[in-house]
Specification:
It contains three helices and three strands, in the order βααββα. It is an alpha+beta fold. Strands 1-3-2 form a three-stranded antiparallel sheet.
Length: 117
């Protein structure tokens, strides 16, 4: 019923700190995997991370073009992540079929869910 697949995902993240950029990139792994595999995903486990590109972009920010200059930084990271995915094959599960000819109303009365007055 379970199937284990190894898959390589390329993700990109941006943020005001290094940690936020990496966290944003790692948060996109699930969305990328779900686009590729339409099965029921049980577990996504990162195996290895390879940083392709890490950029720190600094600029000077000013209030009203002249006043209060300050340095700002934006971090960007591009990485390849090898993930091990555990999939559940729903079509392999044997569901037992139970039919109720009288519908749900009779089923409610039979189970005693409606109190007698």
């Amino acid at each position: 019923m379970e199937k284990i697949v190894q898959y390589k995902v390329s993700v990109e993240g941006k943020g005001k700190s290094k940690e936020l950029a990496i966290n944003t990139a790692l948060g996109k792994i699930q969305r990328k995997v779900m686009e590729e595999y339409k099965a029921m995903i049980i577990r996504i486990e990162p195996v290895s991370i390879d940083v392709i590109e890490a950029i720190e972009h600094t600029y000077t920010e000013r209030f009203l073009l002249f006043f209060f200059p300050r340095k700002r930084s934006v971090y960007k990271v591009l990485m390849d992540v090898d993930v091990k995915i555990t999939l559940l094959k729903v079509e392999d599960i044997d569901f037992k079929k139970i039919e109720s000819p009288d519908g749900i109303v009779n089923n409610i009365f039979r189970n005693g869910q409606v109190a007698d007055k």
